[in-house]
Amino acid sequence: MEEKIIVAIIVSAIAFFSIYAFTPVLIKFLEKRNLTVKDVNKIGDVMIPRPGGISIMIGIVTSEIMLYLFFPISEILAIIITSVLGFSVGIIDDKKTMGGWFKPLALAFCAAPILLLGAYDSNLNFPLFGSVQIPSLYLALVVFMIPITGNTINSVDALNGIASGVTTIASFALAISLFILQNYEIGIACLCLAFASLAFYKYHKFPSRIFPGDSGAVMFGATYGAIAIVGQVEVIAAIAILPAIINSFLFLSSVKKIVEHRQIKNPVKHTDDFKLKSTDENHAPITLVRLLIAKNPLSEKQISNEVLKLTMFSGVLAVITAFMMGVKI
Amino acid sequence: MDVKIYSFIFTMWILMLVGGGLITLIIGPLSLGSIEGIDPIILSGIKIGLALVLIFIWVFVLTKIKNWIFKSQVKS
């Protein structure tokens, strides 16, 4: 146990400090090459460097490789390869805006390492009631899980700090859940993701100094999904990111088709003091942000804080669910 | 912060727990004992169909709650 605690401290420190130190360098590099986008929720032409996914990739992959050197198990290798593939899908979308179906389809292929390395268990575990064995159906679940988590985190990346903040809170909740379930190696792998996203949050929080881009947000989601599968905590992982899932659910139930978010009508507009308020357009989708500001206009910072509070609430529900996994009725 | 959105998350959580219970206790162990020699693939298909019906009901309930929250937020 002592060895595992030392490894957890080492890899968490690598994940955190590599991103903490490298991101300012990346910001300068992107600014110098004019790789910036307009922050549409700020007054004036505020240009923000993008994509920060490069820094996130370095932090997550370096720490997970170090973890693999300590615990050379196929589950950690599957997480590393899936993360890199998720980053690759995102960076393609960063460079050239692809159609709405590109990311789900490409991310489905990112699940291949998990299947090829056999880093999964075909039992689906539920709290209180035990598990169901679904050998064939579980393969489909693995293929669907990575596109769902990748796109879910990407879809909440609408305002400063939300994607990295949601990933940080959900990953810490998932890591605690994995430790409760005594799955220590994957719990430590989840800590790498939690500390990596926490370090990036420092630069991504309001007012953002860098945006993760599709490469960063999709990589966060793909890594999270891979951890959920190899750690056999699919249900707990879904609960921990419920606000992000709600956002995707609200979006899909309003739009009723899979489209790139840039192609739809903006569900929010600005007040004179640059707060966000719900649009009057009937055809604009109801997103989580639009639901939060339906009553009163809120500033970007207020909305970000509300989303993070909702994620903390669902994180607590996830940890409660982990405790309930040990109880059978 | 409006308590309705927290209630929405809490309802989703309860629906996930209940759905998990129905899958593990009823749909998973389901066997059509009265029909002799039923192909396991057909039985799996029936179970998937029942799970999809559950998901449909789940999404329907959540859509109704979402519409109710949004309309009540806009009115207030």
Give the arrangement of secondary structure elements.
The complex is a heterodimer of chains A (329) and B (76).
Chain A: H1 2-32, E1 36-38, E2 47-49, H2 53-70, H3 74-95, H4 102-110, H5 112-116, E3 123-126, E4 130-133, H6 135-155, H7 162-180, H8 184-204, H9 213-230, H10 234-240, H11 242-255, E5 268-270, E6 276-278, H12 288-292, H13 300-325
Antiparallel strand pairs in A: 1-2, 3-4, 5-6
Helix pairs in contact in A: 1-2, 1-8, 2-3, 2-8, 2-9, 3-4, 3-9, 4-6, 6-9, 6-11, 7-8, 7-9, 7-13, 8-9, 9-10, 10-13
Chain B: H1 3-27, H2 40-75
Helix pairs in contact in B: 1-2
Index terms:
heterodimer, A: 329 residues, mainly alpha, two-stranded antiparallel sheet, 13 helices, 66% helix, B: 76 residues, 2 helices
Structure description:
The complex is a heterodimer of chains A (329) and B (76). Chain A has helices at residues 2-32, 53-70, 74-95, 102-110, 112-116, 135-155, 162-180, 184-204, 213-230, 234-240, 242-255, 288-292, 300-325; strands at 36-38, 47-49, 123-126, 130-133, 268-270, 276-278. By secondary structure, chain A is mostly helical. Chain A has a two-stranded antiparallel sheet with strand order 1-2. Chain A has a two-stranded antiparallel sheet with strand order 3-4. Chain A has a two-stranded antiparallel sheet with strand order 5-6. In chain A, helix 3 (74-95) packs antiparallel against helix 4, helix 6 crosses helix 11 (242-255) and helix 7 (162-180) runs parallel beside helix 9. With 76 residues, chain B is mainly alpha-helical. Helices cover 80% and strands 0% of the residues of chain B. Chain B is built from two helices and no strands. The model of chain B has no long low-confidence stretch (mean pLDDT 80).
